[in-house]
Design a protein that fits this description.
The protein has one domain: Immunoglobulin-like. The chain contains two helices and seven strands. By secondary structure, it is mainly beta. A hairpin with a 6-residue loop joins strand 3 and strand 4. The protein has a four-stranded antiparallel beta sheet, with no helix packed on it. The two termini are 27 Å apart. 19% of the residues are buried.
């Protein structure tokens, strides 16, 4: 079943939310934009929906060690820009050009389960998704 497409503002309005994308009106530490992106009900604190949040990991692909970030991407979301970034110090972030994004499946909400993969370097490294609206 295809959901109606809606941008972040439409999603906010349909859920009775006001404020910015970075607001956490339920004080659960999860900003509105991330709840939109991951298809998390913004009218309830994160609770059991924590399984919808991105999860970091490591795996080997074609004998290359990879950092991974697995995430659910809301089927109805529009107007988002998604960037994969890495950092060695959690202060300075660098965008990964041409990151590998693999679709692992579809969840019970018909949202894509995606995985971003970045080759590991010899030094400590962190990975994140930077999600923004125009």
């Amino acid at each position: 079943m295809q959901l109606d497409q809606q941008n972040f503002t439409q999603w906010q309005n349909s859920n009775g939310l006001t404020g910015s994308a970075s607001d956490t009106p339920l004080h659960d530490g999860v900003p509105n934009l991330l709840k939109y992106f991951c298809d998390i009900d913004p009218t309830h604190a994160i609770g059991t929906s924590v399984t919808q949040l991105p999860v970091g990991g490591m795996q080997e692909t074609n004998q290359v060690p990879m950092m991974t970030l697995t995430y659910h991407q809301f089927e109805g979301a529009t107007g988002l820009t998604i960037h994969v970034q890495t950092s060695s110090d959690l202060q300075t972030w660098t965008e990964v050009s041409n990151p590998t994004i693999v679709t692992l499946g579809i969840d019970i909400n018909n949202d894509l389960i995606q995985q971003a993969q970045v080759p590991m370097t010899g030094s400590p490294q962190f990975m994140r998704l930077l999600i923004s609206t125009p």
